[in-house]
Design goal:
6 strands; alpha+beta; single chain; 2 domains; about 210 residues; three-stranded antiparallel β-sheet
Length: about 210
């Protein structure tokens, strides 16, 4: 195990913070570079919200085409004939009810959910002047490291992407692999962090031993 000084140097070299960032965080303040990162992140969220604004009709059309394709497949393989034989005179009322539900889902529920997501992204992009980051939190604990594999790739299968996670006193951070690999669970660390827009952000950290 190398010295605390050398280890802190490695953390700053591989991490997303500098000595200046750490010194500011130790005083309970954000550095100008960190404030700029928050600003860039929120500008990106605003850009994304504006980019995908008014796409509700397109999303409804995609769902509608998909539903029509699914219904066509059911018709070809004889599912409708099977249900007609099972339901008898109730077949048409049941189909009509399902059709009404499908229309409500495609043209009412889907657009509203989509717009709600867009508005959420826009809210996360609020300027720092309107919604500044919260008070910096300080955690002293030994590191708990883990890796998870999840998500869906473009082909619809399990994604091979590995997420490197650091847990400190019950709070979890997602880190870059090169930075994550440096962290030693045997050491005691002090982490400076903040919960911004519902997500915990690791600002800087230092080993205490």
């Amino acid at each position: 195990m190398n010295s605390a000084y050398d280890h802190n140097y490695e953390l700053q070299y591989e991490g997303t913070f500098t000595t200046a960032d750490l010194k500011e965080n130790q005083q309970g303040r954000y550095s100008q570079a960190q404030l700029k990162q928050f600003e860039n992140s929120r500008e990106f969220m605003t850009y994304s919200a504006n980019k995908y604004e008014n796409r509700g009709p397109l999303i409804s059309m995609i769902f509608g085409v998909g539903l029509l394709g699914f219904v066509a497949v059911l018709y070809v393989i004889g599912v409708f004939d099977m249900f007609r034989a099972m339901l008898g005179g109730l077949f048409l009322p049941v189909i009509a009810g399902l059709g009404i539900l499908a229309v409500l889902f495609i043209f009412v529920i889907v657009p509203r959910q989509y717009q709600s997501t867009v508005e959420m992204a826009r809210g996360m992009g609020a300027p720092l002047a309107e919604s500044p980051p919260g008070e910096i939190q300080v955690i002293e604990a030994r590191a708990e490291k883990s890796q998870t594999q999840g998500g869906i790739n473009r082909r619809g299968g399990q994604s091979s992407k590995i997420s490197c996670l650091l847990k400190m006193d019950g709070i979890e951070f997602k880190l870059q692999p090169s930075f994550w690999e440096l962290i030693d669970p045997k050491r005691l660390y002090r982490v400076y962090c903040v919960k911004d827009q519902g997500v915990w952000v690791l600002l800087s950290m230092e080993t205490l031993e």
